[in-house]
Amino acid sequence: SLVHDNMIHHIMICNTQGNVIYSQFYDALSADDENTRTLRFLSEQKLYDRTHATWSSLSSGGEGHHQVEYDGQRYTVYAMIGDLVIFVVGSDECDELILSDFLSSFAECLKMLLKQRGVNEASLMDQYHKMVLYLDEMVKKGVIDQTQYDAIYNNSHLKHEGKA
Amino acid sequence: HLTSIGSQHGTLGVISFMKSKDMLTLLLRDANQRKELGRRLVAILNTAIMCPQDTGLETLSSEALSTLLKGQVALLDNKGERGKTIKRGGIFSKATDGTKERDLILWAVLYAYRLRFSSLGSIMPEIVTSMRRGPPLAARHAAAMIAAHVTDTSFSSSSSTDILSSLRMTLPHIGQSEGIILTDPLARIYYIRMCAQLARIGMTTPGGMVGGEDFYQFVCQALTDSNQRVQFEAMDALSRFEWARLARSNVHPIPGMCGQAEGIFTSVDEPLLIAEVVVRHIKVALDSPSWPVVHTACRIASSLAKTYTRHYYKDGGWAAPEFVQAFDQSTEKEHATIHEQDIKNHPLHELFAPLKRYTSPSTPPSVRTQALCSLLWLALPYASSHPLHHQGTQSWVATATTILAAPMDELLPAHHLALLWEQILQYVTLTPVFSSCALSLVHEWVMHAPEVLTSTQLHGMWNVVAGYGPWGREMLLTHLYMILDACSYPSHHMTYLRLQNEVYAFLGENANLIANEFPGRYETSDPLAQAGVSPCLYSILARLQHGASLAAWDTMVECVDALAKIAFRSSYAVQRMIAKFFKELLAQRSTELYTHVLPLSTLLEQIDNARQIFLDLIDKQAGVLHEGQLRGLYMEHERLRVMVELFCTLPRGFCCITPKAQPYLRDYWSRFE
After folding, report:
1. Is the CB of residue A152 less than 8 Å from the CB of residue A110?
2. Predicted TM-score (pTM) above 0.80
3. pLDDT computed for residue B272 by the predictor
4. How confident is the model at residue B395, as a pLDDT?
5. DSSP E strands: which ranges in A72-146?
6. CA A32, CA A11: separation in Å to the nearest integer?
7. How far is Cα B387 from Cα B364, in angstroms, rounded to an integer?
8. Residue among B310, B536, B555 nearest B433 (CA)
9. Which of B286, B328, B343, B672 gives 20 to 30 Å between its CA and that of A108?
10. Distance from C-alpha of B276 to C-alpha of A46, rounded to nearest angstrom
């Protein structure tokens, strides 16, 4: 397809202890076989190793404080929302700024989805299925689509023509 | 038909094929006929995501999507049923004209097409129309597909003149009222990419007019976009052009251009220089509290500074291959003097101070690395006596040294240091002027963070400097000896052993180049050559012999291998020296190296014997060898060559026995092979 390396590669959500709650790959690592599962695990481990030293600055930096990591090929932007750490990995036109905007949009969706109990691991697990639906509206096969909460909400309920 | 399919795929294959086909048929039926819009859109998207990769089904879904797209674009062009109202059920619902439905279906079709298909085929005109007139998200996907299509290696301007003409008419300053209006920032990003690519490859209409300049001008105009990401995309795209072209380009105010930032132009008629706009944007971004913005600004600054530096060295003649070979210390001083005049004209020098702020330990590692990389490309080498020395490369080296010598918890991670290294290597490859600073930095690296250096990185740097003529080789040898002489810190003991082995391995491979040693050197009538082994080579041999006698086991093996490689590629005098040393090692009766040295020593003796036999034969027969003797010489040479190439590679046409045998071997080869 026309989607090659220039896209979102990986989205991951974990708690402050480093346990992965959600992890979705959109590149070659999205295949489901033994080798790829091992590579996915190694990729997640590498992401953790490279970033966990700065997690303390995420909480102290306040809401909307994003950190960035670049290894020469891929950009990683991550932030702490509630007690969750959210990572978005991309390359090419999905650079730091686009990923930062995407992360902000996703954070807004999470806050709206979990507004009753706040953004934390327990409330996310309760609404896990909706979070996955929202993400599915935002990005398919690594290509960013909707980023406005109203459109994401309406589309996930098959009300595409709905008003904001 | 089903039987033939079954024979190819097996029974299960037939069943899954039929299921896939059924599924696709259902999806396409829903996509075309379903009344609920939401389900219709999901069906369209699922044709791209869920169907298996089968050629027949791909064609089917591609045709179906193309038909849908053409229908929706026809509605966009008012050729379809746009005026017809669609009445919704219920007494409280309003009649709509179907615009929203048309826009949503257009978005879904384009999204599905983008996710699934690589070839735009015959629907390119519809995609261009969708980009011009479609809703924001549909325009984004259309622009992305066009950008990917024009950057594909199979795209050529000569075969796509109609499409290029229609794309040219989408430019606001060309098409005027027909010009494109893209409200989505990502769509503008893809459009800039498309324009940058078309500006690079150029285009020629049937009338012979070259229109690439129009696309280039749009990319320049995009510097004034209101969205920061779009501005950076324009800067990144421009950094891939030659600096000479950027220096003479301007940004003009275009009234009514979509997305143009307010207040950029002080006067309606006054254009701005590219460099001015770029410096302004990057300075604003460097003051941002957001790390992603700062990181992007550093990266873009690095990219633009690299473009300027390449222009500076290339145009000044400091990077030409002829120049590189002749570079020496006097040329370095000459460069520094000339450069004094140029520093005030550096177009991006205002960024040096803002970028330097981000080299402190409190900055996130990735941002620090990008700031360092951009400072590297902004800093041109100055002599220490230059009044702007504190802003020059020495200052950068001092900053980098401070970072490398930082405590462990403030040290940059290994992959960031590798990024920095890559930039240094690119700079050294560009021009020899930076070599001395780069090698002094490598030395600091070795002293403070040796574990992050790999053999590939080290050898890459050393090979580049060794290619810079006698000056470069002398400097390199001094640098290599400094590394060998480095004290062995207890905390880095194993790492220093590894580094020393890297130096010995490099010397083994390159000593002949560094010392200008070759087989025929001492077999000519040149009196200088016959004075003895050159001091440079002598010092290298002394180092290697020391390492082969008094070091750790793996270092001794490395040194012995290095000596053998030098011997096989050198003149007779050097071979004899090394052979004698090997015999002394064997005579020590040490079991450590015996089995390693013995085959090498034996091979050197065999080469010497073959040489003596050949020279005696030449003397006896006045330089004439008959066929049997030629064949014997050839067979012996090939046997020795095979044995030598077990230890090192030899240049083509290299004669192992003696250079005097080369004409005879060539003669045999031309007559009998």
Report:
1. no
2. yes
3. 77
4. 62
5. 75-81, 84-90, 139-140, 143-144
6. 17
7. 32
8. B310
9. B286
10. 41
Tokens 């829903």, residue located: B30
Q: B229 to chain A, minimum CA–CA distance in Å? A: 6
- Residue A52 contacts B, CB cutoff 8 Å: no
Residues in A closer than 8 angstroms to B49, CB to CB, are 140-141
| Interface residue B52 vs chain A (CB under 8 A) | no
CB B197 within 8 A of CB B147: yes
Neighbours of B341 (CB within 10 A): 8
Amino acid (one-letter) located at A22: Y
Picking from B497, B535, B532, the residue whose alpha carbon sits closest to that of residue B515 is B535
Q: Is A80 helix (H, G, I), strand (E, B) or coil?
A: strand
- B596-625: pLDDT as tens digits: 899 999 999 999 999 999 989 888 988 888
Task: State how far the Cα of A37 lies from the Cα of A27, in Å rounded to an integer.
Answer: 13
Mutual orientation of helices B594-620 and B627-644 as an angle, nearest 10°? Answer: 160
Tell me if chain B has a CB within 8 Å of the CB of A115.
no
B418 in A contact zone (CB under 8 Å): yes
B295 → closest Cβ in A2, A70, A155:
A70
- Contact present, B582 and B601 (Cβ < 8 Å): yes
For residue B621, give both structure tokens: 């027969």
Q: Look at the alpha carbons of B465, B470, B476, B480 in this order and tell me if their dihedral is positive or negative.
A: positive
Report which of B309, B226, B237 is spatially closest to residue B274, judged by C-alpha positions: B237
Q: Which helix (H) or strand (E) holds A113?
A: helix A96-113
Integer Cα distance of B250 and B380 in angstroms: 26
Q: What is the pLDDT of residue B525?
A: 47
Q: What does the alpha-carbon distance between residue B410 and residue B133 come to, in Å, rounded to a whole number?
A: 53
Among B39, B190, B292, select the one facing A97 at the smallest CB separation.
Answer: B292
Residue A124 has pLDDT above 90, yes or no: yes
Tell me what the mean pLDDT of segment A51-59 comes to.
Answer: 85
Instruction: Report which of B74, B86, B91 is spatially closest to residue B37, judged by C-alpha positions.
Output: B86
**From CA B314, how far away is CA A79, in angstroms rounded?**
43
Tens of pLDDT along B147-186?
Answer: 888 887 667 666 666 777 777 777 777 766 667 788 888 8
This model of the complex carries an ipTM of 0.93
The secondary element (H helix, E strand) that includes residue A15 is strand A8-15
* pLDDT attached to residue B182: 87
pLDDT per position as a tens digit, B79-98:
444 444 454 555 555 555 56
Q: What CA–CA distance (Å, rounded) separates B616 from B623?
A: 10
pLDDT, one tens digit per residue, over B129-139 is 888 888 888 99
From CA B335, how far away is CA B333, in angstroms rounded?
Answer: 5
Rounded average pLDDT over B628-636: 89
Q: With cut-offs at 50, 70 and 90, classify the pLDDT of residue B403.
A: low
What's the average model confidence in pLDDT over B427-444? 82
Report yes or no: B594 and B575 within 8 Å, Cβ to Cβ: no
The kind and range of the H/E element at B149 are helix B136-151
Cβ pair B291:A50 closer than 8 A: no
Exposure letters B222-243 (e unless 16+ CB within 10 A, then b)? bbbbebbbbbbbbbbbbbebeb
Q: In the block, which residue shows the tokens 């939401």?
A: B38
Q: Which residue of A has its CA nearest to B191?
A: A93
Which helix (H) or strand (E) segment is A8 a member of?
strand A8-15
Q: Residues with Cβ < 8 Å from B446, sequence gap 6 or more?
A: B453, B483, B486, B499
